[in-house]
Amino acid sequence: MSITIPAFELSPEKKVTFRERVQQALVQRAMEKALIPDRESLTIRDLSPENLGLTSWATPAQAADTTVEWIKCVIKPIHLIAIYKVLQLSAKPKVSTLTIYIGSSRVGRHELEPCYASLPIIENLKKALMDPTTRAVLNRMSGREGFPIAPVGSHMEAYFSEPYIIDPDQFFIVEVKARYRTSGDYLVLGGYVAERRGETII
Question: Among residues 75, 69, 76, which one has the least CA distance to residue 100?
């Protein structure tokens, strides 16, 4: 079963490799399903909420310690979809767990709270790295001025160790559990849509 990997544990190079691996998995799956005759016949684009039957990435309102259905759709006949990460954009996140179903099977459960717990640490680290005294020390250690500091985001982002590949005409369901009462969070599922070239529809 896929596990959750906080984005800060992955280098920029590993993230690129991760995304390339997801796209390669989509191409292989499309060939296995005989959806395309060759790679040149396939277009891969970023996933949008409309591809999953949503109008936005907002989650529903819910009471504390409840689980509700967020996404319930049937993938369009011309689409193959891969989902490989989740990004939390709410200022005060409340959703604690994602549960994912493909067809009638539960295929994944992801606890998000451990990822949220790292956010204050990341924010403090970012502030420390930008401190002039710290920068001066890093410059001396590196032997050059302008020691590079990678940008660090303050929003929770986590990758799934194994992407979720959803075939055409399959049911796809995502449930969200909130530890606290919420009027709705804002979660983004990062992924790709693969389709035969020239057949783009929402």
Answer: 69
Contact 97, 111 (CB under 8 A): yes
Q: Quote the pTM value.
A: 0.80
d(CA 114, CA 75): 31
Q: Taking CA 70 as the corner, what is the angle to CA 96 and CA 158, rounded to the nearest 5 degrees?
A: 45
User: Do residues 25 and 42 touch, judged by C-beta distance below 8 A?
Assistant: no
User: Tokens 């200022």 belong to which residue?
Assistant: 91
Q: Which domains are seen in the chain, by residue range?
A: 4-111+157-196 (2.60.120), 119-155 (no CATH)
Mean pLDDT, range 38-66, rounded to an integer: 91
Residues belonging to the chain: 202
Considering only CA atoms, which of 86, 91, 90 is closest in space to residue 109?
Answer: 86
Exposed (0-12), middle (13-18) or buried (19+): which is 144, by Cβ within 10 Å? exposed
Radius of gyration of the chain (CA): 19
The tens digit of pLDDT for each residue in 117-173 reads: 665 555 554 555 555 665 555 455 444 444 344 444 457 889 999 999 999 999 999
CA distances from 151 to 11, 77, 104, 122, 154 (A): 12, 40, 41, 11, 10
